[in-house]
Amino acid sequence: MTDHEAASPGTATESLPEPLLDAVEAARDRKADDLLVLDLRESDAFTDHFLICSGHSARQVTAIVDGIIARLKAVGVRPSNVEGYTEANWVLIDCFDFIVHVFTPDTRRFYALERLWGSAVRREM
Question: What is the rounded CA–CA span in Å between residue 109 and residue 92?
């Protein structure tokens, strides 16, 4: 079993895209907390998946983001946009088919994306 298979429970038809799994692994490598993937394909969302995770501080958030961007670049994926990097309370990495949200804990609780997208299929990572 590969790391990607272990990271994505369920049947093969429920598997997550490789670049998203690469982002999950990169976030884990940087010790991100509470990794969650929301599958938005059955909703009216503008993307297929959200990867949501937290860092303990703004410094860790930027480290997580740097790791994710480096890993995606290594597999040939270049985000179309990165927002919030300077403040590093909530950094959004837009990769078209999926969006990565990296939060500080207080900011994640405040915006509660998991609650806003409550109808999405949740995959604890």
Answer: 16
Q: How many domains are there within the chain?
A: 1
In this structure, is residue 124 part of a structural domain? Answer: no
CB 31 within 8 A of CB 51: no
Alpha carbon distance 93, 98 (integer Å):
9
Q: What pTM, to 2 d.p., does this model score?
A: 0.86
Chain segment 67-97, per-residue pLDDT in tens = 999 999 999 999 999 999 999 999 999 999 9
Which residues lie closer than 8 Å to 46 by C-beta, 6 or more apart?
none
Q: What confidence score (pLDDT) does residue 36 get?
A: 95
Task: Identify whether 54 is part of a domain.
Answer: yes
- Domain membership of residue 21 as a residue range: 16-118
Position 79 in a domain: yes
Residue 8 lies in a domain: no
How far CA 14 is from CA of 10, 29, 85, in Å, comes to: 6, 24, 32
